[in-house]
Each structure stands twice: as C-alpha cells, then as structure tokens.
Design a protein that fits this description.
two-stranded antiparallel ribbon; 6 helices; alpha+beta; single chain; 4-stranded antiparallel beta sheet
Length: about 170
C-alpha cells in the first residue's frame, strides 16, 4: 500500500449484481478494461492500478478522496452496525471528491475532539448524486485500510452486495 497517511483517490468500480447498465462509474469502459485490471484496482486502489482501467472516450471518472481513519475515528465507526457503520466511515474518511467535469466538491467539516467529520449534508449530497452503493464502496475502502494497516499490499475488497462489473 502507498504511504498510509496519504489520502487515496478512489474510482467507483463496484456494481449491483444484475444491474444493466452497471452501476460503477459511467466513465469506466467495462468492455475494454481487462478483468485482471479491474481486479487489481479493486484490491490495491492505487493510482498506478487505476491507470490500467480504460475510460470511455471523452469521459472522466469521479474520484473520491479517502483519508485514513485514525484510532479515534475507527472506534466511532465501530460503535455502529450495518448501513450506519458505512455512513460513519464515509463521514470520517471522505471530505472531498472531484466530479466528472473536474469540479472539486468539499464537505463542511467539524472537529469533534480529535476526529474531523463531514456533516450529514455531505452524506446527503453524495448519496443523492451517486447512490448508497457509492457511499458503501468508499466507506469500505476506508475501513479495509484501517483494519489492514500500512504494511498491507492489496487489502481492499468491495462491500457485500457489490461486485465487479464483469
């Protein structure tokens, strides 16, 4: 894994099983991207692995900035279960994204003790624009990264209910 204190820039590759079209980022050219490249990106979430993914001509993917969860944020996330756990992880780890047009969107954040959290409005904005699966995928990246620790090479997986689009 890259520097553990550096945020990751995450492209959405998960899709709801059976969904047509796939619910991953619409810029991703699923037919032209080798399955091995999708799998590698799912597991590594690195910039290098992302460059092997093929984008549709003239399209740019949205990229979510996922900060590492510290010990206090991790404890707060773990107090919740189910969908609430994913939402907490998202609020603690993702405070900005760049949309397909290149515009950066940033959350209003608040420090709660030593934990910096985005507000519920941010969750609502991302949920309404990208859906619950996107929130879960970004949250899963943050939680996998926290659990695996900095020495892990490819610790990531999609959350339950999502799969790669092939």
């Amino acid at each position: 894994m890259s520097n553990p204190s550096t945020p990751l820039r995450v492209l959405l590759v998960g899709t709801i099983p059976g969904a047509r079209p796939a619910t991953c980022d619409p810029a991703l050219d699923i037919a032209a991207t080798p399955a091995a490249a999708l799998t590698r990106y799912e597991r590594e979430r690195s910039d290098e692995a992302r460059t092997a993914l093929v984008m549709r001509p003239g399209m740019t993917p949205a990229l979510f900035e996922v900060r590492p969860l510290g010990a206090r944020a991790w404890a707060w996330v773990q107090e919740a279960t189910g969908e609430m756990r994913a939402q907490r992880a998202f609020l603690a780890a993702c405070h900005r994204y760049t949309d397909a047009d290149g515009h950066e969107h940033a959350a209003k954040v608040e420090a709660v003790g030593k934990v910096t959290l985005a507000g519920d409005e941010w969750l609502d904005e991302v949920f309404e624009r990208f859906g619950a699966a996107a929130v879960r995928e970004v949250a899963q990246v943050a939680m996998d990264r926290a659990e695996a620790g900095p020495a892990a090479l490819a610790p990531f997986a999609l959350p339950r209910g999502l799969m790669l689009p092939r």
